Amino acid sequence: EKGISFRVEGVPLLEELLSHLPFSLTGAQRRVLEEIKADMARPHPMSRLLQGDVGSGKTVVAFIAALLAIANGYQAALMVPTEILADQHFRRAMELLGEVGVKVDLLTSKVKGKEREEVYRRIEGGEAELVIGTHALIQEPLTFRRLGLAIVDEQHRFGVIQRAKLKRKGRSPDLLVMTATPIPRTLAMTLYGDMEVSVLDEMPPGRQPVSTRLFREGEREEAYRVLAEEVGKGHQAYVVYPLVEESEQLDLASSTEGARSLQELFPHWSVGLLHGRMRGEEKEEVMRDFGEGRIQVLVATTVIEVGVDVPNATVMLIEHAERFGLSQLHQMRGRIGRGPHPSYCLLLAYGPLSEEAWRRLRVMEETSDGFRIAEEDLALRGPGDILGVRQWGLPDFRVASLARDADLLLQARREAFRLIQEDPNLERHPGLKEVLVERWQKRLELAEVG
After folding, report:
1. By the 8 A CB rule, do 450 and 195 touch?
2. Are residues 114 and 228 in the same domain?
3. Residue 188: is it exposed, middle or buried by C-beta count within 10 angstroms (0-12/13-18/19+)?
4. Can you tell me the distance from the alpha carbon of 93 to that of 96, in angstroms, rounded to the nearest whole number?
5. Among positive and negative, which fits the CA dihedral 258, 261, 262, 267?
6. What is the pLDDT of residues 294-309, one digit of tens each?
7. Domain boundary among 313, 337, 367
8. According to the model, what pLDDT value does residue 249 have?
9. What is the per-residue pLDDT for 188?
10. Residue 66 domain-assigned?
């Protein structure tokens, strides 16, 4: 597929940005940027997965990649799953890229009426150079004048069709997909697909490791003791629930009831509540109060999974940890440990659990490595239907196992690439070509966007 060959060396705008940054890039960030620049310079569309734990500096790398596209006369789009995260990225982009004159626009569901029409006009006319938004970016009426780079952040929160829609907003734009925990389908694509992987395996100076502990329901008092100790030191805490309100069917504690009981138990604490059913303005007010220290303990649902950055928050208690996937647990844990103080993630599990459920939770205790967590997820859930829209479940291998036979699959992937290099149109392998077209012709586009 023919793509855009960007000029990536000797770009004055990039040199100006790097000289303005209020921090130095880590060695891992510099290495990953070189990998991205090499991809962007090639005449074929980039398809790259950028993996790094929360706080490792993925966003800055994405902004620099966007700047390269903009310096070449193209637009860049950054799609994120929540309005909270979109707002945070927008503010950060204005701080860093606004400094060098980049025109940044925000497009979410709360941008309405004449303001929305004006944003559409700027995007369609090419005046908006970097557009940050939620699913609003892939709505049908919106067209980009010259989209050169599509970036998807927290990609495990989007379906493959949504990523394909964003890519279709341009003519073969480059694609950069970012995640702190690759979902199994994307991990499988890296094993036998065409998505290259970059890893940010170095944290910026000052980041503290997070200590994770697993508690049973009967050990709640011990978990509360850790929570109270941290709040007593002047730090802040998250308490996360899987539901907004009580459900008789699942019998899970809800965030609203949890906030009430916490306030009764610790009447001297300032307790706030945040969940997805609140209006945008209410969410913003709660997050502002928490960020500025007026709320000591924030009781929330998974709405805090992405985009919340409060360095003074040092402890997170996750209720019904057995109900969350590994990806969600890892993402939520990334909300703490963002400041100079030691941090603690407390997983509270209920009821008799299967061996698989305990194994999943023990992985969280043992590691904070995103790829290790993804590999465990892969072994537990299967890699997904790689060329389709199913996110997990076993693939159509008759003999092999993606989790067990990783080395063999990597060898097969290398052989496939060698064969395509030697015979790009499979003219010397007509039988293989016939089978490929017959089985996968309609599904290849989905595979291209990971």
Report:
1. yes
2. no
3. buried
4. 5
5. positive
6. 999 999 987 776 557 7
7. 367
8. 47
9. 57
10. yes
**Domain count of the fold of the chain:** 2
Sorted by sequence, the CB contacts under 8 Å of residue 50 that are 6+ apart come out as 32, 36, 58, 61, 62, 176, 177, 178, 179, 198, 200
Do 227 and 132 sit in the same domain of this protein?
A: no
Q: How confident is the model at residue 388 (pLDDT cuts 50, 70, 90)?
A: very low
- Give yes or no: residues 26 and 138 share one domain: yes
Q: What is the pTM of this model?
A: 0.76
User: Looking at residue 176, which CATH number applies to its domain?
Assistant: 3.40.50.300
Q: What is the strand order of the sheet 196-200 is part of?
A: 104-107, 130-133, 75-79, 147-152, 174-179, 47-52, 196-200
Greatest C-alpha distance within the chain = 77
Arithmetic mean of pLDDT, 128-144 = 93
- Among 367, 402, 434, identify where a domain stops: 367
Nearest to 100 by CA among 9, 22, 12, 34: 12
Q: What are the backbone dihedrals phi and psi of residue 436, each rounded to the nearest 5 degrees, phi first? A: -60, -50
Residue 133's domain spans which residues?
12-200
Together in a domain, 34 and 154:
yes
Is residue 446 in some structural domain?
Answer: no
CB 209 within 8 A of CB 401: no
Tokens standing for 417? 């690439």
Mapping DSSP onto H, E and C, the string for the chain reads CCCCCCCCCCCHHHHHHHHHCCCCCCHHHHHHHHHHHHHHHCCCCCEEEEEECCCCCHHHHHHHHHHHHHHCCCEEEEECCCHHHHHHHHHHHHHHCHHHCCCEEEECCCCCHHHHHHHHHHHHHCCCCEEEECHHHHCCCCCCCCEEEEEECCHHHCCHHHHHHHHCCCCCCEEEEEECCCCHHHHHHHHHCCCEEEEECCCCCCCCCEEEEEEEHHHHHHHHHHHHHHHHCCCEEEEECCECCCCCCCCCCEHHHHHHHHHHHCCCCCEEEECCCCCHHHHHHHHHHHHCCCCCEEEECHHHCCCCCCCCEEEEEEECHHHCCHHHHHHHHCCCCCCCCCEEEEEEECCCCCHHHHHHHHHHHHCCCHHHHHHHHHHHHCCCCCCCCCCCCCCCCCCCCCCCCHHHHHHHHHHHHHHHHHCCCCCCCHHHHHHHHHHHHHHHHHHHCC
Please check whether residues 150 and 237 belong to one and the same domain: no
